[in-house]
């Protein structure tokens, strides 16, 4: 079952396109890492999914409901942590908890207490007196404690120290394993995404440049180092994503049919031919850093 | 109306309401305590008075009931009430949109419609309760200091004031939804109502003054019956502006 599905989703601000023809699918029970450089349209997409902004064109379905017309219903089944805080600064931690608890009938008090003890949040302190990291933890608690079917997190662990970040990721993974929850989260932290996400989508200039199973993506995207005796420019019959280098020393980036490219290079009788696996960060830079095709 | 949201709104409003309440109670007490002393300072010669002070007004100051109404309902209740209505109007949604706290409500199962109307109704009820309480408090406070009010028409006039101030609140709210900035919205609202009040300075233009109608003076002085039409006019105008504001909020890109 698809928890999120967008079809030709577009958002324009005057002549500027923030999101263009976005076709996104997020399957139930998956942890979807939504990646993209600053200003690539991630937050705009998230806000359209939540019904906070209206699409200029196309549609977005969340939990089978149209986000433009059924945002209230969607709100009853999701947990959301925005990139910038959305907490009432003059409220105490307890008052913030009471507010969301009162709005969400599915609030899981035991889980809330568990998160509270994990995050060590002082109940009587005002939100404005909390550090940025603690405010983030409180926002996560408020999003997770109602046990929503879908968690939408915009840069969820920014501001958390490495230990708290690790704890948070563990809680996220455990939650998914225990409840079958779906998580859609945007992040700049590739290590974090690589650790927990099973599916990723990379957004660049408002367009989804790649989306799919992370393991499959890492299987497909490879870098090949080849040293040839010939000083001629390297030309390949197989389609590759990028060729860099000169004077017989080449780095070839492929995003599919690695074996065919390797076979073609091998036929050139190279002095050196090595294939490298790439990290998600490398893959991200290839797709979002303007890697040519 | 959502009970949690009502509770949250009252929590957010409590300091503004408390400050306004205390200010009005202090002003009322000062007026009661100083009533007789103030009479000694009033000039007996009409030429020494500003042009907008009529001889009837001067006579009225001698009468405790009239003096209290002129000082409290006709002046401080409208002035402090107007400032409060503007503060509540510009503070209702614009700061929540600016700080994105509104998304906490909207992504936890509340519709924009419910958020808008719950918040708005709470403010209007709070504003009405505050002004009517202060207006009614004059009765026991007066008796504590040995005064008796001849009649209680000041309380129904406060109802008209409340309806007029609800309109001020609604307009300030609408302005804040367009400007999306608390300070600029406050300045724009204050300017608008400040200029509007100027119309009340002259007899020929006061018919166009919002604040002139808000006083319901003719009713208080027993010259006319309760101004139902004025009250209805304020209620209808407030409802129209609130519907415009609700529509604006519905379209707002958050």
What does this 3D model show about the protein?
The complex is a heterodimer of chains A (293) and B (254). Chain A is built from ten helices and 14 strands. Chain A is an alpha/beta fold and 293 residues long. In chain A, helix 4 (109-119) runs antiparallel to helix 5. A six-stranded mixed beta sheet of chain A has the order 6-7-8-3-9-10, with helices on both faces. In chain A, strands 2-1-4-5 form a four-stranded antiparallel beta sheet. Chain A has a four-stranded antiparallel beta sheet with strand order 12-13-11-14. Chain A has two domains: 2-213, P-loop containing nucleotide triphosphate hydrolases (Rossmann fold); 222-277. By secondary structure, chain B is mostly helical. Chain B has one domain. Helices cover 77% and strands 0% of the residues of chain B. Chain B is elongated and about 65 Å long.
Question: What fraction strand of chain A?
Answer: 25-35%
Give the CATH superfamily of the largest domain in chain A.
P-loop containing nucleotide triphosphate hydrolases
How much strand content do the residues of chain B show?
under 5%
User: How many domains in all of chain A?
Assistant: 2
CATH topology of the largest domain in chain A: Rossmann fold
Give the termini separation of chain B.
Answer: 22 Å
Task: Label the overall shape of chain B.
Answer: elongated
- Mean pLDDT across residues of chain A: 89
How many E strands of chain A?
Answer: 14
CATH class of the largest domain in chain A: Alpha Beta
What is the C-alpha radius of gyration of chain A, as a whole number of Å?
A: 22 Å
Helix and strand sequence of chain A: EEEHEEHEHHHEHEHEEHEEEHEH
Number of strands of chain B: 0
Q: What percentage of residues of chain B falls in helices of 4 or more residues?
A: over 70%
Which series of helices and strands of chain B comes N to C? Answer: HHHHHHHHHHHH
Number of domains of chain B: 1
